Amino acid sequence: MSAPLRLVLFDVDGTLVDSQGAIVSAMTASFQAQSLPVPSRNAILSIVGLSLPHAMARLASDQSDLVQNALVDGYKQAYHAQRLEQGAASSPLYPGAREVIQALHDMPEVLLGVATGKSKRGLDALLEAHGLEQYFITRQVADHHPSKPHPSMIETALAETGVGAAHSVMVGDTSFDMEMAAAAQVAGIGVSWGYHDRSALSAAQYVIESFEELPVTLANIWD
User: Which residue among 65, 87, 118, 187 is least crowded, i.e. fewest CB within 10 A of its CB?
Assistant: First the structure.
């Protein structure tokens, strides 16, 4: 009897790629364009994973909706300009990411997907820059869903692939990812190398220290 299909969903920023330099730079440019004090690096990294309007609502909670919207637009423009200038170098893959993605992709029963606070344009450009377009069968982005930790992204990925929650996992670096996984009733695997402190990953079933640990952790969950 063939093995049941499995689904591994990845967050992107802070999980697959180290985009903190690009994020902090674009956020800095956005706030400076509005003549506002720039939030601290820690404050900026704390909102990674949220959809942009939610992120700005936290970072500029004392500003009007009009100003928050201008900050969102400014961020998008700055990030896009950076990506055009630097390409893949603006968001390098974490060590081991490509190799593990390839190894999982080579397993016929394993499907791969993405659940990210990025826009579709941003995700497509990133995957193209790294030559990863062919790996992810389902791509859930901020354009089409409520912000994490709402479970909509995972629920849609399950519906698209036909894989049950019991055979699916969410891999991410933030509390938003792990809370989203819990809300969708799928296993959450936290990664220690991202933008939220390990202590924020309390909703995760497992926390791994390197990409190389992921296949063994998946086997532990699914055996």
Answer: 65
